Amino acid sequence: MTRDRDRLSFELVPFSRWRREISVLWHMTARSQFIGPMINGYGQVQYAGRELFERVLCFPWVASIDGSAVAWTSTFNVSDTVVRVRGIYVLPEYRSQGIGHRIVAHALAQWPAPWERALLYARASNVARYQRWGFERIPGHEPRVWAEGNAFGANEIVLMRKHLRAAPGT
Amino acid sequence: MSSRPAAADFIRANIAVHGLLGSAVRVPEDTPWQPLPTPTFELTRDNHHSFGFDGVAFGRRRTFSATYWVEFGRPARPPGDLRTELRAALMGIRAQHAALSIGCTGGIVAEVIAAEAMAMGVPLDGIALDLEGHGAPHGSISVAKTRHRVSWEEFTAFAMHVAHEEGCGDAFHALDAMHATFGDATHLFSRGTLALVRHSHDAAFASDRAPVTWAVASYEQATWVHRWLLGNGRRGIPHVLLWTPELVAAVVDAPTWRRYIDPAAPPPPPRLAHVVLRETYPEIAVHPFESRYEDGVVLRRKLQALSGRMRSVLRGRRATHYTPFDRFARHLGVQYDATFTDPTYGRNEAR
Description:
Radius of gyration of chain B: 21 Å
Strand order of the largest sheet of chain B: 6-5-4-7-12
Mean pLDDT of chain A: 89
Largest interface: A-B, 54 and 58 residues
Helix content of chain B: 25-40%
Number of strands of chain B: 13
Radius of gyration of chain A: 16 Å
Strand content of chain A: 25-35%
Shape of chain A: globular
Oligomer: heterodimer
Low-confidence stretches of chain A: none
Mean pLDDT of chain B: 91
Distance between the termini of chain A: 39 Å
Structural class of chain A: alpha+beta
Helix content of chain A: 10-25%
Largest sheet of chain B: 5 strands, parallel
Low-confidence stretches of chain B: none
Shape of chain B: globular
Order of helices and strands of chain A: EHHEEEHEHEEE
């Protein structure tokens, strides 16, 4: 029997659709219009001013099975060498099949060689999951408070990284 | 020559569709907010300090997801010290405007501007608001004052209006701005300037949670005065301390500011530029807000409560634009020995 994840297809969608669909799933109904294409928590973004519009690329992805959307994620570059994963959501009935891992891997694979590393902020409860996906906690970065976290039952977040490709010569 | 593909190539190939203003990313306008007229006077010299939402400079937020941005000009010459640059700024403003006014709020910015204006012979009309039940603030400003009595209801109506129309979410800012409604002179506003943020610091843990880095924070809230001035055809200087790039550089180069750019220092206070002024002008006494007014403690509480009401009708967002401090200092030509970049976030190609 074919597993769901083997029938996945990935689609780059307009940001307006992505924010509308994922906001409901993030329990932020009626606030979708507040979701921006990038965020700059703790000053990760290394661009400033109008450079933001000349350098930042935002790729909102949807994974579908037989035409039905089942998972969402997005990526944007915080510098010319580092990408941020922002938002990962898999419908409950499709979880624990590797679909989240697949859509994130697909989204990150689109970034060419100058981008060498991906970051994500993980809720503390998700750290082990992302470690299985190849992310690691970053030395020197300790868990910190996520202001909105209490609404989601977890108010600590951890910055994690993943190397996107082997270093040259290795 | 490296065979490594440049980030610029990938960005160039994708920016029209996937950039923040790209066809797949930019959200159609979801509000009927009107554009602002083009500035007919300089908010800062040559409008070197600009802000905007998405690609539009000196505009109003048109969608909630629009990206707020800020830019600063580059100094045209090596800056002098803060006193020198502030005097030069006041002379420059005076050269462009026939009459100037300032709110007698008793705050450090107003007190310093008034003192320097007096010293240089720059005419300045002091406007004092006698707020019902709390009187006019005690301050040492000795410029010619006109006094206007304002009821709490009148002030509240003004505050709620600027919250709804221009995105002001702070009653203290609104109180400062209301001074400008009395008189026709170009008003010098005294709230909202440069803010230094220590990104690595987590207040909840009361410690740094990452390698120490700083950024200059520019708040969308602080530009409501710009929108209010432009939208109403009113002349004013929203932030005197931003008047020239040289003055901005002088603030960032001041000993007080430098003291906080140190991993061993405590996190900077929210209004570091005001602390810079206080330490640059130790001869000017400034009283705490609560002791400037009759029942000042009560007034503070009322203003805090009003701020909450203002935020509930706020037009716009409380977005913040961060400029990494190392880039900001380099841009201004201010030399710092330390490095402020966390390599975790990567690097940009030389441009």
